[in-house]
Specification:
By secondary structure, the chain is mainly alpha-helical. The protein has twelve helices and two strands. A two-stranded antiparallel ribbon has the order 1-2. Strand 1 and strand 2 form a beta hairpin.
Length: about 290
């Protein structure tokens, strides 16, 4: 396959998948619309929220609708702020459909994880927290080194990856010791799980941090470091080529090296290329332009 036969090597610059931000705003809009709807028609609350009785009666849609329901303004504001904060980090990497799937995966997985452990209780589950937690772990896996200043630690901004670890520990401790019985901690953990599965399923994404590698270093040490950060070919020692650019800039680049770089670009994206590899591709393109 030639250089210009590849869709990403035309005259247009490489672009990440687009449309994610527009879907993010639409999701926020749907949450706000549901909040206003329930203020006007409160009789819909037991229909749209998830309950064990509703699921037993065949209202399976509640596992989805509950992820859009908020009864208190502060609850809505907090979740939508988190959705925007972490979603704005994730959206540039995803298509509109992927942002929607990520939100639903976090919300539905969180609700379904909570359900069997509370099958005989009179709970009413609602809120986008599970979906937000799914988006949060996606942000940590794609942008692990972004720093946030938490209200509890105003003088010590922490990385996205560290935040996920801290929140996971808090949710586990809260669930085990029963802290704040009005918070569905299992739904939050389920949101983490749904978001993680989504990103591991979408192979094209440049995942920079895998939280499960912290639990299984011996199985992942061959392709990731002991800190859980992925070592993509070209950014680290693994997967590099023995080819070195010649001193003569006019010398042709071997076709095997061109194919390797184009395949790498297709699989991992432009961010996976080293400065030397980017320079090599530019030189190949210039040489082809001269031939034309």
């Amino acid at each position: 396959m030639g250089l210009y036969d590849r869709s990403y090597m035309g005259n247009r610059p490489y672009r990440e998948p687009g449309g994610g931000m527009s879907m993010l705003w639409q999701l926020i809009g749907v949450n706000v619309a549901c909040y206003l709807l329930l203020k006007i028609a409160p009789q819909l609350i037991p229909v749209l929220c998830m309950t064990a009785g509703g699921i037993r009666n065949g209202m399976l849609f509640q596992a989805v609708t509950a992820a859009f329901v908020h009864l208190e303004f502060f609850h809505l504001l907090l979740n939508m702020y988190g959705l925007y904060l972490f979603g704005s980090l994730v959206a540039p990497y995803l298509t509109r459909r992927q942002v929607l799937v990520l939100y639903l995966a976090g919300g539905i997985t969180g609700n379904l994880l909570f359900l069997p452990f509370n099958w005989h209780s009179q709970f009413v589950l609602l809120g986008a927290s599970g979906a937000v937690y799914g988006v949060m772990i996606a942000a940590a896996m794609l942008e692990p080194n972004r720093r946030f200043a938490l209200m509890l630690l105003p003088m010590a901004p922490i990385k996205t990856s560290t935040m996920v670890i801290v929140f996971t520990v808090i949710e586990l401790i809260s669930e085990v010791f029963g802290a704040d019985g009005h918070v569905a901690h299992l739904a939050h953990l389920g949101g983490f799980l749904g978001g993680y599965v989504c990103l591991k399923t979408w192979r094209h994404l440049p995942i920079a941090w895998d939280p499960l590698s912290l639990l299984a270093i011996r199985f992942t040490s061959g392709r990731s470091g002991h800190d859980g950060f992925e070592r993509h070919p070209g950014r680290d020692s693994g997967g590099t080529s023995s080819y070195r650019p010649p001193v003569d800039p006019q010398a042709p680049v071997p076709q095997r090296e061109v194919d390797r770089l184009l395949d790498k670009l297709s699989q991992y994206g432009i961010r996976s290329l080293t400065p030397e590899e980017e320079a090599t591709l530019r030189r190949v393109r210039e040489q082809m332009n001269r031939k034309d």
